[in-house]
């Protein structure tokens, strides 16, 4: 069973420190809810784990089992078994979705997947996420609705079969039926032993995927790591108890890291390969 291990992680971007000593482990078979107000480092953490080049690690380490990921490229981390579903998937005109998906699958597999096998996998996966197969023949995310982009991220997850999946607000832009479908796919993947680290501001998704534990990030630090009662408490009462019970002042949003996406970088790497 593989474990993603983040130890004392300090990260800055453009000279500003965003993560301030994050330590957390996520193992296969776990589904961890990552909670916290906007602008406090959640998306930054996921992007850093996946190897976004804009972020500078000033201290700490990232391991998958005994493999030190800290200085590896994004594609090397993907080969090791990590996957990040993006909050804002980029549109890439001229790159056919199915070509991109097949390149991604082949770049992370020990053996090349035949055309027949790939399209069979793709057909089964599109049916499971209830996504029209013809989207696979269009340019990557170009003209896709918000919900179609998010289903396409889940489609990538299914095809790449990672050990640890990170989901950055995968439910945003989805209607009720789509959230149900995506939730069912995630839950099914979780039951096969995959590990998940999931950001969402809505209890609905967590109700569907049933996390095994929850962690709360405030001011670039993990301040709570506990059971799923944290999700219910925050959904009902917000984060005020962090200040009253833990004595932690919640800073205002700083640089909006939600606008800094690893997507374009990862797409370019896959296309080059």
Q: What would you note in describing this structure?
A:
The protein is an alpha/beta fold. The protein has one domain: P-loop containing nucleotide triphosphate hydrolases (Rossmann fold). The protein contains ten helices and twelve strands. The protein has helices spanning 42-50, 74-80, 97-108, 115-128, 146-160, 176-191, 203-209, 229-237, 240-246, 263-272; strands at 3-13, 16-27, 31-35, 56-64, 67-68, 82-85, 92-96, 139-140, 164-168, 195-199, 213-218, 221-226. A six-stranded mixed β-sheet has the order 6-9-10-3-11-12, sandwiched between helices. A four-stranded antiparallel β-sheet has the order 2-1-4-5, covered by helices on one side. It is globular, with a radius of gyration of 18 Å.
Would you kindly provide a brief summary of this structure?
This protein is 39% helix and 26% strand.
Rg, Cα atoms, Å: 18 Å
Q: Which fold name corresponds to the CATH topology?
A: Rossmann fold
Q: Whole-Å distance between the termini?
A: 29 Å
**The first-level CATH class name:** Alpha Beta
Proportion of helical residues: 25-40%
Structural class: alpha/beta
| Poorly predicted residue ranges | 255-273
Widest beta sheet: strand line-up: 6-9-10-3-11-12
Strand tally: 12
| H and E string | EEEHEEHEEHHEHEHEHEEHHH
How much of the sequence lies in strands comes to 25-35%
Number of helices: 10
Shape: globular
Main beta-sheet annotation: 6 strands, mixed
CATH superfamily membership: P-loop containing nucleotide triphosphate hydrolases
What is the total number of structural domains?
1
Give the overall average pLDDT: 90
The CATH architecture assignment turns out to be 3-Layer(aba) Sandwich
